[in-house]
Amino acid sequence: MKNQIIGLLAGIIISLSTTAQISSVVKDTLDKKFNEIVKSYNAKGVGAAIHFKDGSVWEAAYGNYGTEKLTTGLLYDAGSNTKTMIATLVLLLEEDGKLSIDDSLGKHIIPTVNINGQVTIKQLLNHTSGFASFTDHKDYYPNVNNNWDSILPVDTVLKYFVDPPLFTPGLRVEYTNTGYILLGKIIEAVEGKKLAKSMRARLFFPTQLDNTYLAFYENYTKKHLGTWLSSGYLADLPVSFLSSAWAAGAVICEPADLAKWAFDLYSGKILSKESFDKMNETLPYTNNQRYGLGMISSTIAGRPYLGHGGQTLQTSSMEYSIDGEYSIVFMNIEDGQWGQTMGMRARMIIMLEELLPNVVVPEDTTSLVDASKNEADLNVYPYPAIESVTVEFSNAIEFEYQVISAQGQLITIGSSQGGKTELYKKELGEGLFWIRAFDQKGSVIIKPIQFR
User: Is 14 helix (H, G, I), strand (E, B) or coil?
Assistant: First the structure.
């Protein structure tokens, strides 16, 4: 029993009063695993973050940008994770009655060359429009490279870099950046303001994403990272590329911000249930993935995840564990390392799935005792407590215990050699907790603890 409990140690998150903080044990465990993983891939520069359900956050960075040490407090490219934000904004506008996702795009904007005005907003969101991606046009990247430091307007992109449609709308899912450029134009038409202003007012400000921006369409003072190429570190930012990506992939942010965004969105804090259900209406996409409205559902380490990925000259992965109720983000500043980024995040997820406890506690305050050992009892007093509480296991010389938050998060573990132990408010914080005690005979008892 003792070894079993100690095996959960890496999953402990400590809640202190109203501020959730990650414990030093967890931080050390995650830091070591993160460093081990990125070193094994010979990664040059990676930032990562995990947002847990109690609000605590782990974040770390490894490597350099040029000769400078990489940190988490810098702006990385979110890439196509931007699409999750655009899809959310469209659904919020639908909630406000300003549009319907069943509207044709021609109802809100004037179609341009090779754009069928009868395609619906929903078909833009789930990549069933049939529109060719502007990033596949033969002249697009030559233009980007020749105008590296200049804004490439999205109207220019739509006018010159969209090939004829690939298939009849609704026939299949085929990823296209063009659809999300059109969604950005629709948002501007409906809102009557620039996309960056709508994103800040409707998404970034309400969700407290204070270090998230639409690159080159907003002002920001934090360092925006360049890219490691095979020839070395490129500090010159691809202004033409990111500005033309716009609603399809121009968001830049700190890893912790992206992790918070994933957690808030996929745990249901931003959209109404009806809108979230629409986002989750998925179609077959690739391998074990399905695509919804700006969202990818997949299976990782045998468990269901919601998320998205992004690729500019950097790559990023954003995932939310439905079972574990946490989000995880990896952001890699080395060019062309999609496989490396996906591999690193998968290994971190496997470790988390193995170590994070899935704690279940009763919903009421009754004790739960093994029927065959019902002579045992657990006394917890006083209840409620002010500063400390005594926990006493009858008929037990020693016992192991777990303290669990009211939300089901494992807080701490311990043992008593004399059948009695003390727990303190200064260590656990205020509120309701559960203590689960195990004696040497196999009795398991759960009782509530409350600190006022």
Answer: strand
C-alpha span between 90 and 187 (Å, rounded): 7
- How would you label 82-114 residue by residue, b for 16+ Cβ within 10 Å and e otherwise? bbbbbbbbbbbbbeeeebebeebbeebbeebee
Tokens of 409: 């998060």
Among residues 130, 120, 160, 117, the alpha carbon closest in space to that of 142 is found at: 160
- Give CA–CA dist 378/186, Å, rounded: 62
Nearest-CA neighbor of 177 among 167, 191, 162? 162
In this structure, what are the phi and psi dihedrals at residue 37, rounded to the nearest 5 degrees?
A: -65, -50
Angle at 302 between CA 301 and CA 307, to 5 degrees: 70
Q: Name the nearest CA neighbour of 86 among 279, 225, 232.
A: 279
Q: Which residues sit opposite 107 in a β-bridge?
A: none
Longest dimension (CA), the chain: 82
Supply the pTM of this predicted model.
0.77
Place of tokens 């770390």: 60
**Residue in the block written with tokens 């050992």:** 373
* Type of residue found at 421: T
The Cα–Cα gap between 52 and 71 comes to 20
CA–CA distance, 2 with 401 (Å, rounded to integer): 9
Q: Which two tokens stand for residue 419?
A: 């059948």
Angle (deg, nearest 10), helices 82-95 and 177-191: 40
Query: How many CA atoms does the CB half-sphere of 36 hold within 13 Å?
Result: 9
Average pLDDT over residues 385-411: 80
Rg (alpha carbons) of the chain, rounded to whole number: 25
* Whole-number Å distance between alpha carbons of 180 and 213: 17
Residue pLDDT, tens place only, 181-194: 999 999 999 999 99
How far, CA to CA in Å, does 183 sit from each of 105, 111, 187, 309, 391? 8, 12, 6, 19, 59
* CA dihedral over 368, 370, 374, 376, signed as positive or negative: negative
> Per residue in 123-178, pLDDT tens?
999 999 999 999 999 999 999 999 999 999 999 999 999 999 999 999 999 999 99
Structure tokens at 35: 């460093």
CA–CA gap between residue 370 and residue 382 (Å, rounded): 24
Report helix, strand or coil for 306. strand
Token pair, residue 388, equals 């400390």
CA 367, chain centre distance (Å)? 36
